[in-house]
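User: Hi! I have a protein structure encoded as tokens and I'd like to know what sequence might fold into it. I'm fairly new to this, so please keep things simple.
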């Protein structure tokens, strides 16, 4: 008889685990509390606009290629991928700059700000490529159950020569000194979850992903990835149950034996939770069954929460690109407010995605689809309508200053999403948007473990465990947990 696996949640990691286990011959069912699949990458449709609710940057295309290849498919079977050029626009306080996708143009751009930095960038990215390769082959693809997994001579040698664990802020400053170039290289780690001073230089692999591998866009939107993954899973016989809130993981004699879903017990041989790790432990298990205490969680550094706005305009807007980063205020002050003082930011950095610049299908003809994101501390709970409106006005004022046009009179659709929505809609710990921060103390084997320490047959996947936040890591997380489950079956 086929082994029966039940999976909690339908984010990227759950979808990935479901397909790998179904391919390995298991009988897999996925239970999702919301009415649609995809977790944080759901879509919102309104008045002819289609908004991606979460991720918008398609980085590391190789991870998606490999994923679909594992099932005998190609990315192009599900969506058309476009490389964006320029990769994105950065609004500095004095002027906007387009960040070229072409390497020679990018080097020339660096040179404009700092003599000799073009060649240094080449060296910096060559090193970042080695980290990417080491990261993808030796960190990311391991279950990280113990430090011994990382003690192979090869990774230790590479680790020492590359100094993977010194802060990325120092690493970047050992190459570059112009503040704009430093911010450009520090932004991926800041937005993905920690101050650069607390992030190991291993994560300069993100700079390689950004600048060398490029920024891409799946036509139709990021949810096309979800649709493709669901198609693969359906073909393999995975069963999906939406509007199915898991209330409890049923445990008998320290062995997980099933789920309680909408009052009904579903029996299973193995259980994987792709829901927020903290929620799974603290809500779905009793105290003696938890691997980590409340105190443990209170000491974790979370990646930021976000104030998000989904905005439809009744006209086209000039002056912005597909991806736009507003670095016209102090990077340091905002990072301190997110990670140290946990205050509502005074003058936050923010990001606007304008996918209708590339893709006509996400907005009605002649209209514009905009997504605004402000990273904020996870300690801020009072995200009232007034607070949301105040920040929306603040960033619209800044946008007006930069592009010479106020978009507010042209708004046809306006919706916001913040801390309390992350908690209510995804059971997110402290309203985090992207899981645990990538700090040194929360890397690899120092992350919450994929296998329960207290309950047999219970596993975890997703952005709060290995390898970490982001769409590509979540795909990998599902693969790694499925391998762990299969290994322990055999
Ligand atoms: C605003 C935002 C922007 C982002 N931008 C990017 C980006 O540009 N590029 C990138 O690579 N990454 C980005 N990310 C990160 C990326 O989206 C996430 O890391 C990834 O989607 C997390 O996937 P996951 O598998 O961990 O699960 P999640 O997406 O967190 O899904 C978990 C699922 O579990 C369900 N669930 C929870 N509790 C229960 C329960 N009791 N019963 C049943 N179901 C339950 C939830 O409803 C949810 O559907 C962004 C995230 C956000 C929020």
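Assistant: Happy to help. Inverse folding works backwards from shape to sequence: for each of the 490 positions I chose a residue that suits the local structure. Here it is:
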């Amino acid at each position: 008889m086929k082994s029966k696996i039940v999976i909690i949640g339908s984010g990227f990691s759950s979808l990935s685990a479901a397909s790998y286990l179904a391919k390995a011959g298991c009988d897999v069912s996925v239970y999702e509390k919301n009415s649609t699949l995809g977790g944080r990458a759901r879509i919102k449709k309104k008045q002819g606009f289609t908004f991606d609710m979460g991720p918008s940057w398609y980085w590391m295309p190789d991870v998606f290629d490999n994923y679909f290849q594992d099932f005998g498919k190609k990315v192009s079977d599900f969506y058309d991928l476009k490389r964006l050029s320029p990769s994105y626009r950065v609004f500095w306080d004095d002027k906007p700059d387009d960040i070229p996708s072409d390497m020679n143009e990018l080097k020339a751009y660096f040179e404009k700000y700092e003599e000799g930095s073009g060649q240094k960038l080449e060296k910096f990215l060559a090193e970042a490529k080695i980290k990417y390769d080491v990261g993808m082959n030796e960190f990311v693809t391991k279950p990280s159950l113990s430090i011994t997994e990382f003690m192979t001579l090869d990774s230790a040698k590479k680790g020492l020569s590359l100094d993977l664990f010194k802060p990325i802020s120092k690493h970047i400053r050992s190459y570059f000194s112009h503040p704009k170039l430093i911010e450009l290289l520090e932004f991926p780690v800041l937005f993905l979850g920690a101050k650069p001073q607390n992030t190991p230089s291993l994560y300069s692999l993100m700079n390689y992903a950004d600048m060398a591998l490029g920024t891409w866009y799946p036509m139709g939107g990021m949810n096309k990835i979800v649709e493709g993954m669901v198609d693969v899973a359906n073909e393999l016989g995975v069963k999906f149950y939406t509007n199915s809130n898991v209330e409890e993981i049923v445990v008998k004699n320290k062995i997980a034996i099933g789920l309680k879903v909408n009052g009904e017990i579903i029996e299973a041989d193995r259980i994987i939770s792709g829901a927020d790790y903290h929620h799974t432990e603290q809500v779905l298990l009793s105290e003696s069954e938890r691997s980590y205490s409340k105190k443990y969680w209170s000491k974790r550094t979370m990646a930021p929460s976000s104030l998000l706005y989904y905005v439809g305009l009744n006209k086209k807007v000039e002056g912005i690109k597909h991806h736009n980063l507003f670095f016209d205020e102090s990077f340091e002050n905002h990072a301190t407010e997110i990670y140290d003082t946990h205050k509502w930011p005074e003058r936050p950095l923010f990001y606007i995605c304008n996918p209708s610049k590339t893709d006509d299908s996400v907005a009605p003809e002649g209209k514009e689809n905009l997504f605004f994101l402000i990273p904020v501390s996870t300690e801020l709970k009072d995200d009232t309508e007034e607070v949301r409106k105040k920040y929306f006005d603040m960033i619209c004022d800044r946008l007006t200053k930069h592009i010479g046009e106020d978009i507010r009179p042209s708004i046809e659709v306006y919706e916001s999403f913040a801390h309390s929505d992350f908690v209510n809609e995804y059971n997110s710990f402290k309203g985090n948007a992207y899981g645990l921060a990538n700090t040194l103390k929360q890397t690899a084997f120092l992350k919450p473990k994929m296998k329960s320490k207290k309950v047999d047959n219970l596993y975890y996947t997703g952005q709060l465990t290995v390898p970490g936040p982001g769409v590509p890591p979540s795909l990998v997380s599902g693969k790694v947990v499925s391998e762990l489950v299969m290994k322990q079956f055999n």
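A useful reference point when you look it over: The chain has a mean pLDDT of 94. Feel free to ask if any position seems puzzling.
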